[in-house]
């Protein structure tokens, strides 16, 4: 079983720079993946990128329902995202949130289908095709590994409001339990 590690929040440079490709599929990678699953479940997230626990490697895990409510779980190492062509693209305008910007959500249009190709923790090729929330998750996690948060895709004014609300929530919490 993995160890639950603290989630890194917006503002930490590890979230705002591209992660390095994985070159060794070894025990260390397997342990990282275990820690990522443990940390994602402890935080009640449906996806987690390695840099969200401070490790700048191109790895994400997910446990997320698709458009039919079917649950999909796995890990993708060195993911490459593929989106439908512009002519075939349909946008899902649902809300998005992130464990690294806790407590905040905003509507963000994204293609309602996405495919990610990469490798599992043993180095075997994997392809994950997603609809609904899973499509959003695949895009969100790949963005993380490229050094982007979903809030970077929001209009500047909305992003500013959201960050102000996030800081407000943090300071309120600190007043209640200063531990
Ligand atoms: Ni996130």
Ligand inventory reads: nickel (II) ion
Number of helices: 3
H/E series: HEEEEEEEEEHH
CATH superfamily: Peptide deformylase
Rg, Å, rounded: 16 Å
Contiguous low-pLDDT stretches (5 residues minimum) are none
Q: What count of domains describes the coordinates?
A: 1
What portion of residues is helical?
25-40%
Provide structural commentary.
The protein is α+β, with helices and mostly antiparallel strands and 179 residues long. It has one domain (13-175): Peptide deformylase (Peptide Deformylase, Alpha-Beta Complex). It is 28% helix and 26% strand. The chain contains three helices and nine strands. The protein has helices spanning 27-42, 132-145, 156-176, and strands spanning 47-49, 59-65, 71-82, 91-92, 95-97, 105-107, 110-111, 113-119, 125-131. A five-stranded antiparallel beta sheet has the order 1-2-3-8-9, sandwiched between helices. The longest helix has 21 residues, at 156-176. It is globular, with a radius of gyration of 16 Å. Nickel (II) ion is lined by residues 98-100, 140, 144.
In short, what is this structure?
The chain has 179 residues and is an alpha+beta fold.
């Amino acid at each position: 079983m993995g160890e639950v590690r603290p989630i890194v929040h917006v503002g930490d440079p590890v979230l705002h720079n591209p992660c390095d490709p994985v070159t060794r599929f070894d025990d260390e990678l397997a342990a990282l993946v275990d820690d990522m699953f443990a940390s994602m479940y402890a935080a009640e997230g449906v996806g987690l990128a390695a840099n969200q626990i401070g490790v700048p490697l191109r790895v994400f895990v997910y446990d997320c329902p698709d458009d039919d409510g079917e649950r999909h779980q796995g890990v993708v190492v060195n993911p490459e995202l593929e989106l439908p062509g512009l002519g075939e693209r349909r946008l899902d305008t649902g809300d998005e949130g992130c464990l690294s910007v806790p407590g905040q959500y905003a509507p963000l249009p994204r293609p309602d289908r996405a495919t990610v190709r990469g490798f599992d923790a043993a180095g075997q090729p994997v392809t994950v095709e997603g609809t609904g929330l899973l499509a959003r998750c695949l895009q969100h996690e790949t963005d993380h590994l490229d050094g982007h948060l979903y809030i970077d895709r929001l209009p500047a004014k909305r992003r500013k409001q959201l960050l102000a609300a996030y800081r407000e929530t943090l300071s309120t919490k600190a007043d209640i339990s200063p531990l």
